[in-house]
Write a structure and sequence with these properties.
Layout (H helix, E strand, L loop, with lengths): L2 H20 L6 H4 L4 E8 L5 E8 L2 E2 L1 H10 L13 H13 L7 E5 L4 H10 L14 E5 L5 H11 L3 E5 L4 E5 L4 E2 L1
Parallel strand pairs: 1-4, 6-8
Antiparallel strand pairs: 1-2, 2-3, 4-5, 5-7, 6-7
């Protein structure tokens, strides 16, 4: 073995050993970057209540925050609560981000709906499904100030995350986490 080969082998051995020894001390970008924060700012058009809440960080949902959102999105006619599907909160978050409104407030027209409220709406208005996903905690009707309902509908459709209903006369968009469809 020549001196040159010996020296090269020693250098490579040192580099490999130093790399293996220091690897546990080197943090990756994923380990050093703070977990992504998921925040919702909501205004309920029927109760005049507001909530500004971080409900998730990274992959971790905060049970207290989810409970507060369920309370906020209760049936405003009866006061009844129902757990909402957390995918709905993610959908709202991602929808506002896609519209460049991540810090914006979403106006809530309707969250959870009891069977009684759903039947009442079916008798007094049009376009209410008899088996609405509102009753399952999987749907919400919204507006975003400064965003047209047409733009909101198009952004919701682009996400391909569930059903999207367009109600231009009532100026709201229905989004849900059911199967992908539109009306």
């Amino acid at each position: 073995m020549t001196v040159k080969t010996f020296a090269l082998r020693n250098i490579l051995t040192f580099v490999l050993m130093f790399g293996m020894l220091s690897a546990p001390f080197q943090a990756t970008n994923a380990e050093t970057a703070p977990a992504r924060e998921y925040r919702l700012r909501l205004f309920h058009t029927h109760t005049n209540e507001r909530i500004d809440i971080v409900y998730r960080r990274g992959d971790v949902y905060f049970p207290d925050a989810i409970n507060r959102l369920d309370q906020f999105l209760r049936d405003h006619r009866t006061g009844d609560l129902h757990p909402l599907d957390a995918r709905l909160f993610d959908l709202l978050h991602d929808l506002t981000e896609s519209l460049g409104q991540a810090e914006g407030e979403i106006n809530i027209v309707c969250g959870f709906r009891t069977p009684w409220s759903n039947a009442f709406l079916r008798r007094t208005t049009s376009g209410v499904a008899s088996h609405s996903l509102h009753m399952e905690g999987e749907a919400i009707d919204i507006r975003i100030p400064g965003i047209s309902t047409l733009e909101l509908r198009d952004a919701a459709l682009a996400l391909h995350r569930g059903g999207v209903g367009f109600y231009p006369k009532s100026e709201f968009v229905h989004v849900d986490v059911g199967r992908v469809r539109q009306w």
